[in-house]
TrEMBL record:
The protein's name: Class I SAM-dependent methyltransferase
Domain Methyltransferase: 60-155
UniProt keyword list: Methyltransferase, Transferase
GO biological processes: methylation
Record lineage: Bacteria, Bacillati, Actinomycetota, Actinomycetes, Kitasatosporales
One example GO MF annotation: S-adenosylmethionine-dependent methyltransferase activity
Organism of origin: Streptomyces microflavus
Superkingdom of this protein's organism: Bacteria
Keyword Amino-acid biosynthesis included in the entry's annotation: no
Length: 242
């Protein structure tokens, strides 16, 4: 599937019938050869948006996966970067992809649940990319509260968020169909695999961030293009622990 180096259809089926954690442990060695990895142009856009907000000392990549976000943090943080994920397989790939001495501060990799982060308020910047579909709406406030508790006063929690696809577009029906299939799968099969595309609405996200104590502003990621109505295709959410 996807590329010669990517997972086979059988491997994807096995992963989809596993728990979220086990599924990513299995997918990890081939994850970067799938469309699920955040594209480099998005990572580059986020990096450019963060540069004028710095400098930052310490950075935390929340749900780091194979380390794409940690790579961004190494470019904008001077002192220390930590990547945290609950998948041992993904962390192993991240360690191999970003070994010490490859530019920027070294990265410490921590295995932990993002809903129970094991950190004191010691980070200047927290980043998360491409992971929010793995959290149910009921868990989102708790996730934001955990990140808030890991930041120093004045620290920022940032993440890109794309505009919803136009109603009736191919992407709209694709996301709708995927989420419907996932709901059926989770109703009929255990353990559950949590991954949804349509549960991270901007208005709800802003409410939960504010409720967790953040002040929030949005930055247009203009280099990722505009929609037909002139609005940006993607924004960077910048939530600050005042």
């Amino acid at each position: 599937m996807f590329t010669k180096q990517g997972p086979t259809l059988r491997e994807l089926a096995v992963q989809a019938l596993s728990s979220t954690q086990r599924g990513y442990d299995l997918l990890a060695p081939k994850f970067d050869h799938t469309p699920y990895r955040t594209p480099d142009r998005v990572l580059d856009s986020v990096t450019r948006a963060l540069e004028p907000l710095g400098p930052f000392g310490t950075g935390l990549d929340v749900c780091c996966g194979t380390g794409a976000g940690a790579g961004v943090l190494r470019q904008v943080c001077r002192e220390r970067v930590v990547g945290v994920d609950f998948s041992a397989g993904m962390l192993a790939e991240a360690r191999a992809a970003l070994p010490p001495g490859t530019g920027g501060p070294a990265v410490d990799w921590v295995r932990a649940d993002a809903l129970a982060l094991p950190f004191a308020p010691s980070f200047d910047l927290a980043l998360s990319i491409g992971a929010f579909g793995h959290f149910l709406p009921a868990d989102r406030f708790g996730l934001f509260a955990e990140v808030y508790g890991s930041l120093r006063p004045g620290g920022r929690f940032v993440f890109p968020i794309g505009a919803p696809p136009a109603v009736g577009s191919r992407a709209y029906w694709s996301f709708l169909g995927f989420d419907a299939a996932m709901r059926v799968r989770n109703a009929l099969w255990s353990p559950k695999f949590i991954m949804y595309y349509r549960t991270f609405r901007l208005s709800d996200v802003l409410d939960d961030l504010t409720g967790a104590g953040f002040s929030v502003r949005l930055m247009a990621l203009t280099d990722l293009g505009e929609r037909p109505d002139g609005s940006p295709r993607a924004r960077l959410v910048v939530a600050t622990r005042e």
